[in-house]
Write a structure and sequence with these properties.
The chain is mainly beta. It has four helices and twelve strands; from the N terminus they run βαββββααβββββαββ.
Length: 202
């Protein structure tokens, strides 16, 4: 999901693009600076699904297409240059093969607000338990500047029903700041998938 605090960030919707999605301005006349808000949050490379909060989706896609690993692909990237918050870049990748799957998550963040130092963390999950997932986000809580996420990704329950999960996620996001939500359930046996998209702007 994406959130927005500024008018520019809130002026977005998710649209499908190939097997992935991209952000698009809901009202193009109000678009100010597209550099940090218009990108492809989800792209699919063969049996890998890449999800991020910025244009590093393309960096990972292109790197892995050249046989780099998830971590190696992200070495060229850092947190966003939006001081004093220095929004962390968060990324995830799911790999499905032969009826099994694994996933990894990454966060690139400033060292306690110091833009000269980037802290890089990757969390990998092998043979995950059915009905369980992990959640990583950009900020720990409100504040000025906004404090970056800390610790391991949070463990969450993932129900069997995509519609119930979609509704639960959307209803629990901050009403003022929520912008768009993308949910995908992938059948690990055959790779087929179901997708749900909710946009606040309609």
């Amino acid at each position: 999901f994406i959130m927005g605090r500024s008018e520019n960030s809130r002026n977005r919707i998710f649209v499908e693009e190939g097997a992935g999605i991209r952000t698009q301005a809901f009202d193009p006349s109000k678009l100010v600076d597209p550099s940090l808000i218009i990108y492809a949050p989800v792209r699919v490379l063969g049996n890998k699904t890449i999800v991020t909060n910025g244009d590093q989706t393309d960096t990972i896609y292109e790197g892995m297409d050249k046989q780099l690993t998830f971590e190696q692909s992200l070495r060229s990237r850092e947190f966003e240059p939006d001081g004093p918050n220095y929004t962390p870049r968060i990324s995830g990748i799911m790999h499905i093969e032969n009826g099994k799957y694994n996933y990894a998550m990454s966060i690139l963040k400033s060292n306690n607000g110091d833009p000269s130092s980037c802290s890089r963390y990757t969390f990998a999950y092998e043979n995950p338990k059915a009905g369980e997932g992990h959640f990583i986000h950009t900020y720990k809580c409100d504040g000025n500047p906004l404090p970056s996420f800390e610790g391991e990704p949070k463990r969450i329950a993932v129900p069997d029903c995509i519609d119930a999960f979609t509704e639960s996620l959307w209803n629990n996001l901050n009403e003022d700041n929520k912008v768009s939500l993308f949910v995908r359930y992938i059948n690990i046996a055959d790779g087929t998938y179901e997708t749900r998209i909710i946009n606040k702007n309609k």
